[in-house]
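Summary of Year 1 activities. Much of the first year was spent building the evaluation harness for sequence design. The harness presents a backbone, in tokenized form, and records the residue chosen at every position. We chose the following record to illustrate the format because it has been used consistently in internal testing since the harness was completed.
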């Protein structure tokens, strides 16, 4: 029996756990509160993409007579080839049977459908000897073909890193999700709930906490909560995470609380500790809550009656990945992009150098919310202590620091501490392209194991960068990217188009600036995002500005 069950609902990443539950479990360890965590997403994927289950998928599609497009007809016609290779491909992507790469790269070995029409120039991407990465890329396309078949013929809501995302994006109204939850279970629902039932029946937890980071996790969280309410009515259920923190800050629809007993906002450590304490005290007459929505007297109320401050970052413990099936995550290479492979290929221990953002001014960012507004760095010695603890527990020495923007001074201190302890680690993080990243600092970071940085150039226009209050100029970005490149640290740039008042010519100029940065070799990777206005950003709060 465990006091708390922490769940990441389907789906997030294929290659590494989303870190929220590991962070919370690490904190609960410091309070001697027993917990268990599961990543339902990877468990569903591994169950679904198996010869046994996909045999049922093909039979289901045939029985429902949903095989309509030429692409799905081709995949179905090749079903024996898919079923014969599927378990071996998954095992390869899990890091087993490395020699299988040569077989995958043999022309005609894997069945192919429409995804293979998008193949990059494989020789350009992988050369003569990059067989392992080439095989991962081909195996990923193979899985995406099967994913297309699922979407076309079995469950239109399916996606490798999201499920029913459209429903989550319309969360300004609960009607559509509520209606969906009263429809027949989908194929993916059935797999998810069977796995969920097994865990809950075994663990008998008092409290189940769902971490919902993205819109693509929301529907599954509600579907799982619905199942628990029906089949395990004595268990209390809470929701937190990035989606709740941004989209549910003013939740008022009582129907939400047919599924969840509590919704907590912002840092989850203290709110969850208070919830479990209230159950241990048999829900005292005046239970204490921290930033928690609940239903009282048939009304949605927001309770924040605990005066205790949130825990400092030095007090929350080391993230704990115990319970997660770390050897079952699958590394994929969807496109031949060097930074994209860091996101999707290989398992990374996730850590944070500092809570919040040290800059905290960008006008498109949710800087009014605590997770960005409250800046609190962690001492480099403690960070490296946590790195060493994670290496000993997970066997992995790769780290992704998931900061909003890692501070240069703390990155320097971290690098010095890593070098002082003679640790061999590989790490990367997000930054601002600010002038403090000198050539000397970049070489120091490289010596400590830093292999890549990603940062927001955003609009490649000094007028718009000033409007965004980014605190950098295009010239400064070019200099900093050059410094990192000199030190052989890969640079990825986030870019946006469609920012308010951006003209067509400025968009073209931005494209040209980025083209030049690539041409001279100081940018190795970039991605353009369409601008999206968020409610808690300065321009969301005051659009007239």
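For this record, the design step produced the sequence shown next.
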């Amino acid at each position: 029996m465990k006091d708390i069950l922490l769940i990441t609902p389907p789906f997030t990443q294929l290659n590494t756990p989303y870190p929220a539950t590991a962070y919370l479990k690490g904190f609960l360890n410091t309070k001697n509160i027993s917990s268990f965590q599961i990543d339902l997403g990877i468990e569903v994927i591994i169950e679904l993409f198996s010869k046994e289950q996909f045999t049922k998928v093909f039979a289901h599609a045939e029985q429902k007579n949903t095989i309509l497009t030429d692409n799905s007809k081709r995949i179905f016609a090749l079903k024996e080839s898919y079923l014969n290779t599927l378990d071996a491909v998954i095992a390869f992507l899990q890091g087993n049977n490395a020699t299988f790469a040569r077989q995958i790269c043999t022309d005609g070995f894997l069945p192919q459908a429409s995804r293979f029409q998008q193949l990059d120039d494989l020789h350009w991407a992988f050369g003569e000897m990059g067989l392992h990465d080439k095989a991962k890329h081909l195996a990923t396309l193979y899985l995406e073909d099967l994913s297309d078949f699922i979407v076309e013929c079995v469950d239109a809501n399916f996606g490798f890193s999201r499920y029913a995302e459209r429903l989550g994006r319309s969360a300004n109204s609960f009607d559509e999700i509520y209606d969906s939850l009263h429809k027949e279970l989908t194929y993916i629902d059935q797999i998810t709930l069977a796995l969920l039932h097994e865990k809950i029946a075994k663990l008998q937890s008092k409290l189940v906490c769902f971490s919902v980071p993205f819109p693509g996790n929301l529907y599954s969280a509600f579907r799982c909560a619905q199942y628990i309410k029906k089949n395990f009515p004595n268990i209390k259920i809470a929701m937190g995470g990035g989606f709740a923190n941004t989209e549910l800050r003013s939740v008022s629809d009582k129907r939400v609380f047919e599924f969840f007993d509590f919704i907590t906002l912002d840092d989850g450590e203290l709110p969850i500790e208070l919830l479990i304490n209230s159950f241990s005290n048999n829900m005292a007459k005046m239970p204490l809550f921290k930033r928690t929505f609940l239903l009282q007297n048939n009304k949605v109320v927001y309770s924040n009656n605990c005066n205790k401050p949130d825990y400092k970052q030095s007090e929350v413990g080391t993230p704990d990945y115990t319970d997660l099936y770390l050897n079952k995550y699958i590394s994929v290479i969807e496109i031949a992009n060097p930074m994209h492979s860091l996101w999707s290929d290989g398992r990374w221990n996730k850590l944070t150098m500092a809570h919040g953002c040290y800059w905290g001014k960008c006008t498109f960012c949710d800087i009014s919310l605590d997770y960005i507004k409250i800046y609190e760095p962690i001492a480099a010695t403690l960070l490296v202590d946590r790195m060493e603890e994670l290496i000993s527990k997970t066997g992995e020495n790769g780290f992704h620091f998931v900061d909003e923007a890692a501070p240069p001074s703390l990155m320097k201190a971290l690098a010095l501490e890593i070098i002082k302890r003679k640790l061999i680690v590989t790490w990367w993080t997000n930054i601002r392209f600010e002038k403090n990243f000198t050539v000397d600092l970049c070489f120091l970071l490289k010596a400590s194991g830093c292999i890549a940085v990603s940062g927001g150039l955003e609009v490649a226009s000094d007028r718009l960068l000033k409007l965004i209050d980014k605190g950098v100029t295009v010239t400064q970005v070019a200099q900093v990217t050059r410094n990192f490149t000199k030190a052989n640290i890969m640079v990825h740039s986030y870019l946006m188009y469609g920012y308010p008042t951006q003209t067509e010519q400025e968009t073209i100029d931005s494209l040209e600036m980025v083209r030049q940065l690539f041409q001279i070799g100081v940018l190795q990777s970039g991605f353009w995002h369409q601008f999206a206005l968020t409610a808690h950003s300065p321009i969301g709060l005051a659009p007239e500005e």
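The chain is about 45% helix and 15% strand. Quantitative recovery figures across the full test set are reported in Table 2.
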